[in-house]
Amino acid sequence: MTTELNLTTVLLLQKTAYIAGALVLVYLRAVLGPIDGVRQIGASFLILALGSTLAGYAEIDHLHYSLFSLINVVAGVLAYSMFGLGMVRLSSRRSIMPSSYIFVPAGVTFVAGLISHFHEFDSERAITFNLVAGFSLGLSGLAVYLDRKREPLQVRVPLSAVLLALSLLCLVIVYDFVFGNHELISPASGLFVLIGGKFLLSMLIVLLIGERQHVQLVEIANTDGLTGVRNRRYFDQHVPQALRAGDAILLLDIDHFKSFNDRWGHAVGDEVLRSVAQTIRRTVSPLATVARYGGEEFALHLPQRAGSGVSVAEAIRGAVESQMHTSDTIERRVTVSIGLAVATSPHHALSDLCREADQALYAAKNAGRNRVHEYVERIRAARIGEAA
After folding, report:
1. Within 10 A of 172 (CB to CB), how many other CB atoms are there?
2. How many structural domains does the chain have?
3. DSSP readout, 96-109?
4. Which is higher by pLDDT, 122 or 257?
5. Domain limits at 181?
6. What is the mean pLDDT of residues 190-205?
7. Are residues 129 and 169 in the same domain?
8. The CATH number of the domain where 354 resides is what?
9. Phi and psi at residue 184, in whole multiples of 5°?
10. 332-365, pLDDT tens digit by residue?
11. What is the rounded CA–CA span in Å between residue 50 and residue 96?
């Protein structure tokens, strides 16, 4: 038994796909708040659903066939223009042009229809619709793929592949209508494949939004909310547990920090923490990992390529000391003590290096603060002597 795809069934499936996609996007926007591009994509699905409805009416209401056909093709051009704009905004999270520009192709199509009545011919209408759809889907696919370097989400590759595949399918349909042979694919089959592609496309758009939300949540979980640098959790999980020879760990403590809180309040203490964190980030190489280790203490992992540990530590200490911290017209000078430990062998354990840096920090504080001490065996011997 052979089942043929009739136009009424295909249009119903098409309308269902568009409405389902729009409802999912409306739900996501309601739950997650405004998301760049989602409003335009959802609106484009609803307009395409409206156009599909009008196409069905045009087939049964011959009296208003010309009107319904014109509105159908104009709606399709508007919807795909809106979809392309929405996908680019969703992918890049920025506006590339005013939203009003999307009405230009639809306006041109409307005027052309009034003058030439091309919309009254199925082939001309199909060529216009699929040509605009192919351009919009292709542009969207390229935008999603090219943005992967700036935002390397895993879903970008399959999403761009589906967009480009749908774009190619639309161009194949245009080719068949131009030459009038339909040897590559029949109109009903082409429309049916497009419907399946739209369902897949809607799912991938949802996955893109979901993966982006996951990445943002992970970033929040790994960032200290007060200073903006990494937190202890990130430091412990992402700094290699076995360091290479020449890598360094710095532990930095703000001198007399408790007095800032006791004398001027915690708000001033918070400003000092933020200021010191920003100074550290400006001073060190991007290769370094900077984390708030706890309270007024910061930890840094310096790969050997990021520079000499002693030089970097002295640069940080000098930069912090030279900066005046102003709040409520009160100027304060802040200093820091830094303990430094350098890995002396391959696979030097991170825990050992942190412990050595902590001992060096203790020695820097005992020596009068506002200085850098590098871990050496005599510091270890002094700590053992104190314990005894």
Report:
1. 16
2. 2
3. -S-GGGGHHHHHHH
4. 257
5. 7-221
6. 84
7. yes
8. 3.30.70.270
9. -80, -45
10. 789 999 999 999 888 899 999 999 999 999 999 9
11. 27
| Helix axes 377-387 and 350-366, enclosed angle (nearest 10) | 70
| Residue-averaged pLDDT of the chain | 86
Same domain flag for 51 and 80: yes
**Do 237 and 342 have their domain in common?**
yes
Residue ranges with strand state E in 307-379: 324-327, 330-333, 336-342, 348-349, 372-374
Exposure of 192 in the CB half-sphere (CA atoms within 13 A): 12
What span, in angstroms and rounded, lies between the C-alpha atoms of 316 and 311? 9
By annotation, the residues acting in catalysis are 296
Q: Is 2 part of a structural domain of the chain?
A: no
Average pLDDT, integer, range 313-326: 88
Predicted confidence (pLDDT) per residue in 155-194, tens digit: 999 999 999 999 999 999 898 888 877 677 777 777 778 8
Based on the domain organization, do 214 and 310 belong to the same domain?
no
Tokens encoding 149: 């370097």
Return the residue matching tokens 């009254």: 120
User: For the whole model, what pTM was predicted?
Assistant: 0.77
Of residues 289, 300, 302, 304, the one with CA closest to residue 245: 304
